Amino acid sequence: MKSWLTVCVVAAAVVYGLGRANSEKLGSDGTISFSAPSLDTEETHSSHMPQRLRCDACRAIAFQFKDYLSKAENKRTGKTQLSESEYIDTIEQCCSQKWDQYGLKEVNGMKRISGPGLEEEEKMGMVMLGGPWPGRLYKMCHSYLGEYEEADIYKAYRKNPHFLEEFLCFGKNGDCTKSGQIKKRKSSEKEL
């Protein structure tokens, strides 16, 4: 049943993408084709997120933290700030989710993590859902909880939810700074 659902989701993503195709993506006969990304040994067998995908994964995790915290605050009546136990529970629930809406997609010849909060989700291509990717995101999210205090994550979120990605991913030791995949954004850590 799960594999059937994955096929349906992938088929829906391809159909959605076809409507947005431009002429340079079409073959000479007006057809377009996609194939699943081919995985190397590290992508297939490692239990950790490959270094070149850690920036995308970090950005996905930051998006999910922001989404979970925002939903938790919106459930509150009156004051919006969460208590310590509420934000700790919310952040831990975020990391413990299934992560099944994220997968691997090849975009312009590069393998990228695709899913909510990432621009690759909107780009045309076939997404490889399931497999090792949810487990890797789960582990990576929990590793951030070992690296950062939940209070620091919530403080960065409360300061400005849109800079939570900057705080986690683009700081001095952030995965986007180390990977070199994405250049440092205009806003700096000083803004946090």
Helical run tally: 8
Kindly state the number of beta strands.
3
Regions with little confidence, pLDDT below 50 for 5+ residues: 1-24, 182-192
What does the overall shape look like? globular
H/E series: HHHHEEEHHHH
On the 0-100 scale, what is the average pLDDT? 80
Structural class by helix and strand composition: mainly alpha
**Beta-strand residue percentage:** 5-15%
Determine Rg (CA atoms, Å): 18 Å
Distance between the termini: 45 Å
Structural account:
It is a single chain. By secondary structure, the protein is mainly alpha-helical. The protein contains 8 helices and 3 strands, in the order ααααβββαααα. It has a 3-stranded antiparallel beta sheet with strand order 2-1-3. Strand 1 and strand 2 form a beta hairpin. Helix 3 packs across helix 4. The N terminus and C terminus are likely disordered.
Task: Pick out its properties.
3-stranded antiparallel beta sheet, globular, disordered C terminus, mainly alpha, disordered N terminus, 192 residues, 48% helix
Summarize the structure.
By secondary structure, this protein is mainly alpha-helical.
Could you outline the blueprint of secondary structure elements for this entry?
Blueprint: H1 2-18, H2 41-45, H3 54-75, H4 84-95, E1 103-107, E2 110-114, E3 127-129, H5 133-147, H6 150-159, H7 164-169, H8 175-179
Antiparallel strand pairs: 1-2, 1-3
Helix pairs in contact: 3-4
